[in-house]
Amino acid sequence: MNFDDLVAIDIHTHAEEPCNHHRDDGYNEFQAGMARYFRNPAGAEGMLPTVPQTAEYFRERKIGAVIFPVDAERETGFRRYSNEEVAQLCAENDDILIPFASIDPHKGKAGVREVRRLVKDFGVRGFKFHPTMQGFWPNDYKLVYKMYEAIEEEGAIALFHTGQTGVGSGMRGGMGMRLKYSNPVHVDDVAVDFPDLKIILAHPSFPWTEEGLMVAQHKPNVYIDMSGWSPKYFPEIFIKYANSILKKKMLFGSDWPAITPDRWLKDFEEIGIKDEVRPLILKENAMRLLGAA
Ligand SMILES: [Zn+2]
């Protein structure tokens, strides 16, 4: 990937299994719920983009994209896009896509081996965790610390979903999703115990926005991605920190396909981010994090 050719790097996009055919595992209903939450008709109509279509969209706009599946089959029962398949598609589109992977921490030793294999054999650069969808505390050392150790040793990045989620929103019993796991303060323990692990807190962490800002301010290895929300709904304090003490820690992310970069970037223009800070958030911070600057 030649970063000079890119105008921005989107650190948070999803490889969703296309659901434009009927499935009997509840996946279509789940995507319809997500579409309502994000007011994004694409999901409900079964128009989710494939990975090659995603590459095409980003290539047209000269925006590099970190892309990942989410391994939550244990909690949700959904088949997932395999990490290998996504990484392979990224390799075929390596001018624009950067592969992350996702492994349910409950996979234990097998998961730890998978981390190392995905980095070494498939060029995976990071791992997405979703504490609510995967049902775990990020600081559960017995469960997941061996996996962080492997990620740290392989020089990869750990990205954590934080705050509220569209997953299970409005569905009976929230589809079993427990929101408590996604408070970013639990990731603070991870940042202490793995000081050389690069960590991203995804989203404005609502309603724990201030906790997320606190962790990123205090721990040099913790970044925040601004995905999953249109910037026009960002809490004021989030913008204030992005403009000042966290200007080198904040990262552009959309949460594609739930939110498109077109919509995100348009709204980002309107929130009073300083001219000198904008390129940091849109591209330079991500380049540094990815070891490209
Ligand atoms: Zn996401």
CATH superfamily (homologous) name: Metal-dependent hydrolases
CATH architecture: Alpha-Beta Barrel
- Please estimate the helix content: 40-55%
Shape: globular
CATH class: Alpha Beta
* DSSP helical segment count: 13
Could you tell me which ligands this complex binds, including any ions or cofactors?
zinc ion
InterPro entries: ACMSD (IPR032465), Amidohydro-rel (IPR006680), Metal_Hydrolase (IPR032466)
Organism: Pseudooceanicola batsensis (strain ATCC BAA-863 / DSM 15984 / KCTC 12145 / HTCC2597) (Oceanicola batsensis)
Protein name: Amidohydrolase-related domain-containing protein
GO molecular function: carboxy-lyase activity; hydrolase activity
Describe the structure in your own words:
The structure is a single chain. The chain is an alpha/beta fold. The chain has one domain (3-16, 55-289): TIM Barrel, CATH 3.20.20. It contains 13 helices and eight strands. An eight-stranded parallel sheet has the order 1-2-3-4-5-6-7-8, sandwiched between helices. β7, α11 (236-243) and β8 (250-251) form a beta-alpha-beta unit. The protein is globular. It starts with 7 loop residues before the first strand and ends with a helix. The model has no long low-confidence stretch (mean pLDDT 92). The structure holds zinc ion. Residues 12, 14, 228, 255 line the site of zinc ion.
